[in-house]
Write a structure and sequence with these properties.
By secondary structure, the chain is mostly beta strands. It is built from no helices and 9 strands. Strands 1-9-8-4-3-2 form a 6-stranded antiparallel β-sheet, with no helix packed on it. Strands 5-6-7 form a 3-stranded antiparallel β-sheet, with no helix packed on it. The structure holds FE2/S2 (inorganic) cluster.
Length: about 100
């Protein structure tokens, strides 16, 4: 059963941007793509770098350390050196709040 946790109002993440949050000790990045919200682990799968330091372009966010890019919808890397995906989390909107299930994959 998903256990959704309210994170932030939908208005705090503008279209085309992403913001970091810590939910239940888990660093999570939430991106707004045309009013649809996606959540991934805020940690590069290559080494220990926060993806929220990078730039979101379309549905890709880049890692500032070695340049890998990840799709925020799927968590999949599209550029080396990272080869492993990062975790993705279920997102829902309830009462104009973004809610995440931090236990979901
Ligand atoms: S730490 Fe992200 S590409 Fe190396």
């Amino acid at each position: 059963m998903p256990k959704f946790t309210p994170v932030t109002p939908v208005t705090t993440i503008k279209n085309g941007t992403a913001k970091p949050f810590t939910i239940n000790g888990q660093d999570i990045l939430i991106a707004n793509l045309d009013g649809e919200f996606f959540a991934i682990e805020d940690r590069c799968s290559h080494e220990d770098s926060r993806l929220s330091l990078g730039c979101l372009k379309g549905d890709l966010i880049d890692c500032t350390l070695h340049g890998s890019r990840f799709n925020v919808k799927t968590g999949l890397p599209v550029e080396e050196p990272a080869v492993d995906p990062v975790r993705t989390f279920k997102v829902r909107i309830k009462n104009d709040m973004i809610e995440i299930d931090p236990g979901s994959l």
